[in-house]
Amino acid sequence: MKIFIAGASGLVGGNCMHYFKSKGCDVIGTYFSYPAKDTVFYDTLNHENPANFDIKSFAPDVIIHCGALTHVDYCEQNEAESYQKTVESTQNLVNLSLQLNAKLVFISTDYIFDGKTGPYLENETPNPLSLYGVHKLEAETIVKTQVAKHLILRITNVYGDEERGKNFVSRIIDQAKNGQKLTLKLPVDQFATPINAFDIARALYLLLNEEKKGIYNIASTDYMNRVQLAQTILKYFPNAEYDLIPMRTHEMNQPAARPLQGGLKMEKFLNEYPDFAFSNVDDYVSKYLTK
Ligand SMILES: NC(=O)c1ccc[n+]([C@@H]2O[C@H](COP(=O)([O-])OP(=O)(O)OC[C@H]3O[C@@H](n4cnc5c(N)ncnc54)[C@H](OP(=O)(O)O)[C@@H]3O)[C@@H](O)[C@H]2O)c1
Questions:
Q1: Is residue 43 part of a domain?
Q2: Is the pTM of this model over 0.85?
């Protein structure tokens, strides 16, 4: 299988690139501003950029779109850029996948829901609270209505190995390990289903191999708020110095509204792959400490 991953210098795309290569796929992964190891340049907003990798000659069977703006509060304050990087980039990759007759994989989020009744199944009614969520939902609709051969993976609270170590879990581990004092003001009322990016890659590999289509939630067995997530990590660092200050979301003055009772249910995926073993945050941190 020939796979093109836009945004392989990031957390999800990077894990997919490494995992698919380890399975023998022919994979090209791209970066935009951070040239991570083994990636090539590609700008999803400008297919005519002469610096772009020549995707047409590569002629992938699958295009995976991980190249997006993921900072929810930044999106709220920069609407045009958020629209461009989430909606327009998706339309561009839709056009490319139609031209090349490639399957398109779009990565979405539980932020398309309002967080009143989560965790959510795939067929529940979206009602995004933030611009990030509105734009992700619009991008999903573009993919669903224009590309017959599509997969939409919904994920949330992703952590895992990445070159820049910028995700929430990795940052806490790094600081605790390096003896830096942590001050963590975290919402106690935002619940979600954290997922290891490595498990997303493993799940997507199975779905692609079996030519699956449609929407799949990829979530783990954990359902926790941010305070619980931090505590789960910190218990592995008994000498870590930290102030953990639980806050209510309304006290935090975050520019973008959050789904409070968010997260995703993975019954659909598990019904189709009952042997699939999802890892959880405890697995990730304990394994990290034995490396
Ligand atoms: N992380 C989460 O918790 C989470 C939750 C739900 C959904 N998602 C979705 O999952 C997808 C991947 O997220 P992630 O966490 O892996 O994000 P990430 O680590 O921030 O990676 C984003 C990627 O997009 C690339 N990119 C940005 N602008 C681009 C452009 N114009 N052209 C091409 N590539 C561009 C970045 O390249 P450079 O870094 O090289 O500039 C990077 O490789 C996103 O669609 C995100 O919305 C993530």
A1: yes
A2: yes
